[in-house]
Amino acid sequence: MPGLLHGPRLGILVWRARPEASSHRSFGAFTLFSAIWILGVGLFYSGGNLVFWATTAFAGASLVPAAFLAFVRYYPTPTKWLGPRVLQLCFALGVCFAIVSLTTKLIVKDALTTDAGPIRQTGSLYPLFAVYFLLSWLAALIVLLSKWSRSKGSARIQLLYLALGFVVSTSGGIVANLVLPIVSGITAYN
Length: 190
What we know:
Layout: H1 6-17, H2 22-44, H3 50-74, H4 84-103, E1 108-114, E2 117-122, H5 126-150, H6 153-184
Antiparallel strand pairs: 1-2
């Protein structure tokens, strides 16, 4: 997993370029939480200490949408449409889900090895986690599209590329990790 360190390095590089800028801080947080999620998923599939790595992955994933929503609010210019209270609520929910994931069996009940590979069994709060995650990502997409529709020039192109990257990179993961397990109970495609 040598490539895993590139995300946090990029986040640190962007943050250090302008630590006072909210867009830089939120991008740094987004890359850090994404790296925790990726590390948890990668080590979950390595076969050792399944429950620990599954809960670690969910703890990181709990904060990814809040950090991305913050980044979208501030990049390339801040929007007043999405107020700080919404971000505070989103981060508070993310922190709660991260703590619950790490300390209880309410999000990840168990993890075991099958012939198809490791699978996780979700707990009773998993559907609520999925709703939080999906609503946060949907809010980020709405903010992105709203900013894109009102922007011009290079900002419009930057937002278009960000939106395309956002949709392409997250669609499969959201379907395989959130929607499919809720609809069918299948977690083998994570």
